[in-house]
Amino acid sequence: MVPRTDALTLEVVELIATVVARYHEEYEEAAAKHSLTGAQARVLALLASEPQPMRRIAQQLKCEPSNVTGIVDRLEARDLVERRPDPADRRVKLAAATEAGREVSGRLRASLNFAREPLAGLSAQERTVLRDLLKRMLGEDPDDPYTHL
Amino acid sequence: MVPRTDALTLEVVELIATVVARYHEEYEEAAAKHSLTGAQARVLALLASEPQPMRRIAQQLKCEPSNVTGIVDRLEARDLVERRPDPADRRVKLAAATEAGREVSGRLRASLNFAREPLAGLSAQERTVLRDLLKRMLGEDPDDPYTHL
DNA sequence: CCGCGTTGCTTGACAACATGAAATATCGAG
DNA sequence: CTCGATATTTCATGTTGTCAAGCAACGCGG
Prior knowledge:
- The structure is a homodimer of 149-residue chains.
- Chain A has a single domain (7-114), classed as Arc Repressor Mutant, subunit A (Orthogonal Bundle).
- In chain A, strand 2 and strand 3 form a beta hairpin.
- The longest helix of chain A has 27 residues, at 7-33.
- Mean pLDDT of chain A is 88; it is low at 144-149.
- Chain A is mainly alpha-helical and 149 residues long.
- In chain A, 23% of the residues are buried.
- Chain A is 61% helix and 11% strand.
- In chain A, helix 2 crosses helix 4 and helix 3 (54-61) crosses helix 4 (65-77).
- At the A-B interface, helix 1, helix 6 and helix 7 of A face helix 1, helix 6 and helix 7 of B.
């Protein structure tokens, strides 16, 4: 196997670090334009697609549930999110995006031009190659669907 | 040009988001193993390669200089970083990694296995293709070296 | 049905990170 | 030398994050 510190690998890692930095930058910036923090935007995006119990939000954010309480509190104070009882389990509170919340989330997603700009320079064929390489890198091998978790 | 919301582009963006999330996760985790926060690890890495004025650290972190004060304070309290006067301008304080700081930074870098694991499954040729696509995506066209900043 | 351990959420205390405004010291141009 | 600009720090404040403790509700074994 190729040594793990060869120049090519280091270069790719460096590039990925740059992608990560730029992606984050753009995301925070886009969120700020809607008076949201990054964390608030992420939670709102989660809830815009589907109402979820607090616990599950914490799992997806990889943080403690007590942290989610505060984030949802702030979103709720702005009527972007609401807490509903779970009819199946009275311990659970389902956080759901309100109509206003979905609207903001939609506009935010649309304003995220990371999707467009950096990929615009790549042909459809190149994007396909990139997609497959990223999938392989992430362990979702398109030729071996049993590889992924 | 291809519409900016076609399925392929969205899929690639989704994959990039996953890469970003996983990279961050691993970075924080690796930093925590050395009792550092993500921000501290980033600053330490910056200073390990070269001493810098506070102002410049803030620019690279894209935050206010007043924020850097606290981060460097905490690193300095652990003798990983020291503040030196700038002989050319007495307003400036140069933050520099100590020997211990460089040592920790080096071990942290080595423990970042994001470099290895995800890329291990790709052949050298595939990594070359990935490198070039990422470069193109980031505006550093390998065929046109004058494009990059 | 009744206890009792488990689960889901919130609260409180605390640390780190982030911003903005104001204070201080120094620089540099005129 | 004066005065505006620059580099850093301090302070007040808000958000994110952790952990421990508390409470309500679930559900299982008896």
